[in-house]
Structures are given as structure tokens and as C-alpha cells.
Amino acid sequence: MPLSHCLDCGREVSTRARSCPHCGRPRPVRKCGDGLTVLLLIAGLLAALAAAAVVSKKCCPFRSAAFRCRSIVAPEVAPPAPAKFPPPIEER
Asked: Are 4 and 12 in contact (CB under 8 A)?
């Protein structure tokens, strides 16, 4: 079990102890895991953004097929002409 020195009394204290058994001073809590957590969170967000960019470029196969069909068919098909009706018959 590693030992360190108490900042108040200078005696050896276990690194696992929450406070010095001699003078009672609480040990400063190291949060080295927090830096790793933040780093992993940032890496996860970057990976999610990269995956979203790849998916948006590839698109869904059904959606991209529909867009391809519209781009191929739409320019060749002319819009329908307006309907022409004969003039109404007048009744006498």
C-alpha cells in the first residue's frame, strides 16, 4: 500500500485513507478519472458527428433511389396541358 506525507503533520499516511489518522486532516481528493471521462465524452461526440456526416452523404437507399427517379423522369415528362372543354350547350 503506497504511502504519502500529510500536509499538516508531515507523517506518513496511506494513499487510500480519507483523512490523516494522526491529525485528522482530510486528504485532497484527486479526480483523475474526470479528465478521462471528459476526453471519452468528447471523442464520442466527435465520432457521432462523423457518423452523422457519413450517413447524410450516403443517405438512405430508398430515399436516394426516389431522388434519382425524380431527376431522371421529371425532366422528360412535360406537365399536363390544361383541359379543354367544349362550350356549354344553351337550352331553349
From this structure: yes
